[in-house]
Design goal:
The chain is an alpha+beta fold. An eight-stranded antiparallel β-barrel has the order 1-3-4-5-6-7-8-9. This is DUF4893 domain-containing protein.
């Protein structure tokens, strides 16, 4: 009888220990892979470089915003409101297939060719059914056009794709050219409003945020 009481007490203490404080959001990719088909498991597809980019997304985000603020662009960052809140992630992260309008924000200059905060004019983009239970994201307007697949992953969906430039009409295959490869995540931040976050893109900026709204 005494043994049963001790076991009960220990179990209760363990349960309370799990409620002792607010847990910070985990890095992207830190949770164990769910039981999904191999072709839908981004962890089996992402390159080592991109897994590292996704794992370090928060440090990259904070460093990019800090650089922009030190460069005098704090008001521009504040003006983004929930778009610039790294922990803003609502349920149902994936937009439905359809036509959208995308606005690119580049934060934290990587080199001297870009400012520490740059907003581009909205351009066309689309979400389409990629088959196999996955959606595809295509930025169809502008001279820099991320193109890739969206892999469901809890409150976010992981984006793995490549960059298409200028008058190119076909994307490279993911994993073929590390300078073209892109990795990020998409999440819903408001009513019919999403963002695609691209930490540590290869050129120009430390962080890209693409705002996605219906066309």
């Amino acid at each position: 009888m005494r043994t049963a009481a001790i076991v009960t007490l220990l179990c209760g203490c363990a349960a309370l220990a799990g409620c002792g404080g607010k847990e910070r959001p985990k890095p992207v990719g830190s949770a164990p892979a769910a039981a999904v088909a191999p072709e839908q498991n981004w962890r089996l597809i992402a390159t080592d470089d991109d897994r590292n980019r996704l794992r370090g997304w928060r440090d990259t985000w904070l460093a990019a915003v800090d650089k922009a603020r030190k460069g005098g662009r704090g008001a521009a960052i504040d003006g983004l409101q929930e778009l610039a809140d790294p922990d803003r992630a609502l349920t149902e992260p994936l937009p439905r297939a359809g036509a959208y309008r995308c606005t690119v924000y580049k934060i934290g200059a990587n080199g001297t060719a870009m400012a520490d905060f740059t907003k581009f004019e909205p351009t066309e983009c689309e979400i389409v059914d990629g088959g196999g239970g996955l959606l595809e994201f295509h930025k169809t307007g502008g001279v820099q056009r991320p193109d890739g697949l969206l892999y469901p992953d809890g409150a976010r969906a992981i984006f793995l794709g490549t960059m298409v430039y200028g008058d190119e009409d076909k994307p490279f295959r993911y994993g073929q050219d590390r300078l073209r490869d892109m990795a990020g995540y998409i999440e819903r931040i408001g009513e019919k409003r999403w963002r695609l976050v691209l930490p540590a893109p290869r050129f120009e900026s430390m962080l890209d945020i693409i705002e996605i709204v219906p066309a």
